[in-house]
Specification:
The chain is globular. Strand 3 and strand 4 form a beta hairpin. 55% of the residues lie in helices and 4% in strands. It is built from 16 helices and 5 strands. The chain folds into 2 domains: 293 residues, no CATH class; 55 residues, no CATH class. By secondary structure, the chain is mainly alpha-helical. Helix 3 packs antiparallel against helix 4 and helix 3 packs across helix 10. The chain has a 3-stranded antiparallel sheet, with no helix packed on it.
Length: 372
């Protein structure tokens, strides 16, 4: 197994090979955001002010949903400080870009910038890391879910893409709101409440039928767009004790026109090496990583990554480098630890209840055989 290195170790070796402009904000990215904002707003107005046929409403929903998703990708850039540096302007623009998700900039910076980026794939500290066998032993609901047939679990996982980002954002609000100081906590609450108030006011103005096409369906589409990337960013990688972006992150490849529309969001390993660099420069970072560490860099086509997600469970074993299915007693490798995304093949494994130490002494029964 390769030696793990922290983010700075990689960044210090790549930075000398990049142009100085790569470390500056790129305000021109706001033009794309303006295009998304105008397009989405025009679509909402077209639905709200007219009695359109079903097909027209559905087509407009797709356009609005693509705009919602594009704004989300831009909001991610803005709140990393890679578009504008002024803090007040950054937060204002970030709030607009994340308005459709009812997600405030102050919460996002705490959850994503401070916690996720600083503790990527750390089981105890990364709020986006997936569950482990230790949690399965203590969560009856999770154990119930793993009694369901494999195809049901996989279908539910992919269906959840349409809602997951919005739900997870609210869970992050509950998780972190109490950690803010009193004044900041008020701001975090307002940044949650104000978008909700706006969207429900829109419901009252246009009625539920039009609102579904103007907001609900586009929001679901934007959720699916965002989670389609987020689900591939780390879920095929192992949990790591060292925040090594080449070990715990995956970049996907998409057609060039998709990268243009999605603002290079596919370059995720590159983003974790330089989170304060605008994704405009991510292709240059990728070229340097592949030059310096060609055997350590993980990338695959987006469609292949999604198929690999479907073929593997979303639960880490006690060793934190295997994905395990406790119902079928199967273990799958992760990237760098035996996972072949071209031929996903599990191996039989024996899983025991209790802590890792108890498991070592073959204590007790299979976790799914115990009472709740």
């Amino acid at each position: 197994m390769k030696e793990l290195h922290p983010i700075g170790w990689y960044a210090s070796r790549i930075a000398p090979h990049l142009p100085r402009e790569a470390f500056k904000p790129v305000p021109s990215r706001l033009w794309g955001g303006l295009a998304y904002l105008v397009t989405g707003t025009a679509g909402i107005l077209a639905i709200g002010l007219n009695d359109l046929p079903l097909l027209a409403n559905m087509l407009l929903s797709v356009v609005i949903g693509m705009s919602f998703g594009g704004l989300g990708f831009l909001g991610h850039e803005i709140l990393h400080g890679t578009v504008v540096k002024n803090a007040a302007l950054r937060d204002f623009l970030g709030a607009i870009a994340f308005w459709q998700f009812s997600l405030g900039p102050k919460l996002w910076r705490k959850w994503h910038n401070m916690e996720h980026h600083a503790n990527t794939q750390d089981h105890d500290h990364d709020p986006d890391a997936w569950a482990t066998m230790e949690e399965l032993y203590t969560r009856p609901a999770m154990r119930w879910a793993y009694r369901l047939p494999r195809w049901v679990r996989t279908t539910a996982n992919f269906t959840s893409f349409a809602l997951f980002f919005s739900i997870h954002s609210f869970l992050m609000f509950k998780r972190y709101v109490g950690q803010f100081k009193s004044r900041d906590r008020v701001i975090v609450v307002l940044q949650l409440v104000m978008p909700y108030a706006f969207w429900f006011t829109l419901l009252a103005l246009m009625g539920p039928y039009k609102w579904v096409f103007a907001y609900v369906l586009p929001l679901m589409m934007a959720n699916a767009m965002v989670i389609g990337y987020i689900a591939t960013n780390h879920q095929l990688n192992p949990l790591t004790d060292v925040n090594d972006p080449l070990a715990n992150s995956l970049s996907v490849t998409v057609p060039r026109w998709v990268d243009v529309l999605h603002l290079n969001f596919s370059y995720h390993t590159e983003h974790h090496v330089f989170p304060g660099m605008n994704p405009k420069w991510a292709p240059l970072v990728k070229a340097q990583i592949k030059r310096l560490w060609p055997d350590l860099y993980f990338e695959m086509p987006m469609t292949r990554a999604l198929r690999t997600l479907a073929a593997t469970p979303r639960l880490y074993g006690l060793n934190h480098v295997d994905l395990v299915d406790p119902q079928l007693s199967l273990a799958y490798g992760t990237l760098g630890h035996g996972l072949d995304h071209e031929n996903v093949t599990p191996r039989p494994t024996k899983l025991y209840a209790g802590t890792e130490a108890e498991s070592a002494t073959n204590l007790s029964l299979h976790p799914l055989q115990q009472g709740d």
